[in-house]
């Protein structure tokens, strides 16, 4: 097993979340990929999607029925981008703290985006604490790549403030604007 730790950085210094930290670890064991994000700080300032049927005051309650949803990146969303080494093809995984998810496949930089139908569900765990939120995903990559293929991963998060300001967090930012699709930002190698 090859495990690496990470710490995400905001695209630009942000006055909205001066004490926010997003750290975690990622590992590949054969073709099983495990990623764990820990969001720490004053979470009460972060806008989390709450299911309409759930009126609890929890930080980020899970949806009664987590499902595949589009445009999760418009809200607080944990993401990672997985590319095959020496190939332009890559996938975007979106994980909402409310339990919703999606996976998209691209043939090249932002080219021919389509929902990845190899995944019918993408179960992950969300653990809410008073000052942290931990999201953990274990995904079998056999559905999209072979175990022999080397991969490159970009780890990212979109954080939405209660005042609707959105900040973009990543391992590295390689563009003039926040752009998680830039392949040079897929810096975790397995």
Secondary-structure-based class equals mainly beta
Order of helices and strands: EEEEEEEEEEEEE
**Uncertain parts:** 51-57
The CA-CA distance between the termini, in Å, is: 10 Å
Query: DSSP helix count?
Result: 0
Give a short account of the largest sheet: 8 strands, antiparallel
The whole-angstrom Rg is 16 Å
Cα shape: globular
> Total number of β-strand segments?
13
Report helical residue fraction. under 10%
Write the layout of secondary structure elements.
Blueprint: E1 2-7, E2 9-10, E3 21-29, E4 32-40, E5 77-84, E6 90-95, E7 101-106, E8 114-115, E9 124-128, E10 132-140, E11 151-160, E12 166-170, E13 188-189
Antiparallel strand pairs: 1-3, 2-12, 3-4, 4-10, 5-6, 5-11, 6-7, 7-8, 9-10, 11-12, 11-13
Question: Would you mind describing this structure in some detail?
Answer:
With 190 residues, the protein is mainly beta. The chain is 0% helix and 42% strand. The chain is built from no helices and 13 strands. The protein has strands at 2-7, 9-10, 21-29, 32-40, 77-84, 90-95, 101-106, 114-115, 124-128, 132-140, 151-160, 166-170, 188-189. Strands 2, 5, 6, 7, 8, 11, 12 and 13 form an 8-stranded antiparallel beta sheet that branches. Strand 3 (21-29) and strand 4 (32-40) form a beta hairpin. It is globular and about 45 Å long. The termini are close together. The model is unreliable at 51-57 (pLDDT under 50).
């Amino acid at each position: 097993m090859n495990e690496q730790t990470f710490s995400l950085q905001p695209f630009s210094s942000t006055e909205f979340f001066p004490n926010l930290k997003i750290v975690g670890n990622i590992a590949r064991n054969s073709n099983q990929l495990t990623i764990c994000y820990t969001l720490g700080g004053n979470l009460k300032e972060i806008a989390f999607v709450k299911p309409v049927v759930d009126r609890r005051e929890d930080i980020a309650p899970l949806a009664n029925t987590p499902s595949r949803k589009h445009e999760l990146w418009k809200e607080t969303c944990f993401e990672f981008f997985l590319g095959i080494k020496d190939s332009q093809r890559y996938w975007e995984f979106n994980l909402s703290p409310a339990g919703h998810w999606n996976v998209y496949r691209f043939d090249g930089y932002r080219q021919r985006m389509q929902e990845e139908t190899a995944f019918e569900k993408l179960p992950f765990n969300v653990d809410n604490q008073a000052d942290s939120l931990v999201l953990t995903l274990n995904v079998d990559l056999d559905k999209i790549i072979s175990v022999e293929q080397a991969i490159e991963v970009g780890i990212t998060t979109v954080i939405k403030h209660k005042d609707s300001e959105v900040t973009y967090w990543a391992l590295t930012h390689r563009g003039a604007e926040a752009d998680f699709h830039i392949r040079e930002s897929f810096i975790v190698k397995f």
